[in-house]
């Protein structure tokens, strides 16, 4: 591998490439609202990594990158010496917005002939099938000859199912977004600090249900409780007409299934329990669902949120309180002595680290 490069929408600076060399491109969607598609004129991308997980090295002519997601692809400069276009366009938007950068060969004779490579526009099935094709590489980064070592995510019994349904709502005459009918509002004190010092009145565990209520949305500081060392199935359910993208702080999870329509227990029959990819952010297609498995191995107060920033800001988020009665440093370090305290915790002394 000759070098590592980053591609960002709006970039037009030529990237020099030597014929015959292979380059790694790290592609990240750091946008606020829109899924993107990327393709390289005349070149195939070999996907090798998704958010820290090695993948099966599948070749793609174009790749959908949803909000908050990152991919690494290998690209070999094996074409005649020209300047090739790197094309990025929006996905699932009424108006398709496109921008380009240049892949410049060191022996370039000028602009490559032919039109820019076209990409998908609003095709949900195309994107869904591509997402399903991204698989974990079981023989990379693990002890041999036993793939994944001794841990097989698909063979661990789940201890709880959490179903999360996003929705749009008008509350007090204003646009809001919700999860299981709760539109989150921030408390006057950071929730982890309030939890650590046991400050009453800041939040209540259980203010958001672990399954959809399908009722009217309302404002609340939403905190869901979960047990440390549990192994949960989380199902994201999207009955709206736009793609959702979800991130969970503090955790990686396995994407075990996604499909159109409504989720039911029978949907588990199509789960991938062998080589689903481990990642931190996952998309949910319109009128569809996505299921993940996640070990609760990290004590704390963790934010679960939409990666669409307007939706996140207006309430499509909540906190997952992973709790244990243990006070052992083995499970969670105490608050650092130089932590800044505010809200109802102002003036308290931090305990020594």
Describe, in plain words, how this protein is organized in 3D.
The protein has helices spanning 124-133, 191-196, 309-313; strands at 4-7, 15-17, 22-28, 36-40, 45-50, 53-54, 59-60, 63-65, 70-76, 83-90, 98-105, 160-171, 174-179, 182-184, 218-220, 223-227, 231-238, 244-248, 253-260, 278-279, 281-284, 288-295, 300-306, 317-323. By secondary structure, the protein is mainly beta. The strands form 5 sheets. Strands 1, 3, 5, 6, 7 and 9 form a 6-stranded mixed β-sheet that branches. A 6-stranded mixed β-sheet has the order 13-12-17-22-19-20, with no helix packed on it. The chain has a 5-stranded mixed β-sheet with strand order 2-11-10-4-8.
What amount of the residues lies in strands?
Answer: 35-45%
Number of strands: 24
The shape is: globular
Q: Which regions contain 5 or more consecutive residues with pLDDT less than 50?
A: 1-14
Largest sheet, in brief, is:
6 strands, mixed
- The assigned structural class equals mainly beta
Mean pLDDT: 92
Q: Could you state the oligomeric state of the chains shown?
A: single chain
Distance between the termini: 43 Å
Helical content (DSSP H or I, runs of 4+) = under 10%
Helix and strand element order:
EEEEEEEEEEEHEEEHEEEEEEEEEHE
Tally of helical runs: 3
Alpha-carbon Rg, integer: 23 Å
Family: Belongs to the multicopper oxidase family.
GO molecular function, one term: oxidoreductase activity
Pfam families: Cu-oxidase, Cu-oxidase_2
Domain Plastocyanin-like: 18-107, 190-325
């Amino acid at each position: 591998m000759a070098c590592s490069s980053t591609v960002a929408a709006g970039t037009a600076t030529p990237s020099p490439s030597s014929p015959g060399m292979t380059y790694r491109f790290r592609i990240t969607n750091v946008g606020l609202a829109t899924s993107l598609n990327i393709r390289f004129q005349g070149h195939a991308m070999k996907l090798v990594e998704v958010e820290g997980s090695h993948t099966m090295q599948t070749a793609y002519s174009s790749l959908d990158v949803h909000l908050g997601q990152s991919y690494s692809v290998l690209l070999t400069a094996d074409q005649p010496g020209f300047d090739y276009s790197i094309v990025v366009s929006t996905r699932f938007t009424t108006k398709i917005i496109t921008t380009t950068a240049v892949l410049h060969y060191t022996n370039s004779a000028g602009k490559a002939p032919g039109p820019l490579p076209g990409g998908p526009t609003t095709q949900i099935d195309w994107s869904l099938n591509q997402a399903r094709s991204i698989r974990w590489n079981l023989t990379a980064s693990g002890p041999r000859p036993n793939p994944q070592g001794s841990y097989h995510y698909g063979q661990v019994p789940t201890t709880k199912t959490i179903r999360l349904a996003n929705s749009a709502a008008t509350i007090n005459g204003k646009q809001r977004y919700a999860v299981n009918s709760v539109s989150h509002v921030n408390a006057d004190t950071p929730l982890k600090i309030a939890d650590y010092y046991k400050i009453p009145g800041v939040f209540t565990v259980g203010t958001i249900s672990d399954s959809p209520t399908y009722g009217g949305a309302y404002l609340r500081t939403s905190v869901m409780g979960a047990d440390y060392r549990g192994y949960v199935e989380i199902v994201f359910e999207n009955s709206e007409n736009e793609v959702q993208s979800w991130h969970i702080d503090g955790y990686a999870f396995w994407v075990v299934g996604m499909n159109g329509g409504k989720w039911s227990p029978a949907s588990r029959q199509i789960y991938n329990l062998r080589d689903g990819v481990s990642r931190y952010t996952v998309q949910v297609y319109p009128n569809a669902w996505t299921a993940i498995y996640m070990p609760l191995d990290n004590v704390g107060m963790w934010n679960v949120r939409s990666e669409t920033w307007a939706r996140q800001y207006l309430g499509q988020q909540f906190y997952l309180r992973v709790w244990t009665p243990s006070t052992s440093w083995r499970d969670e370090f105490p608050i650092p002595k130089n932590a800044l305290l505010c809200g109802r915790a102002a003036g308290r002394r931090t305990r020594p680290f």
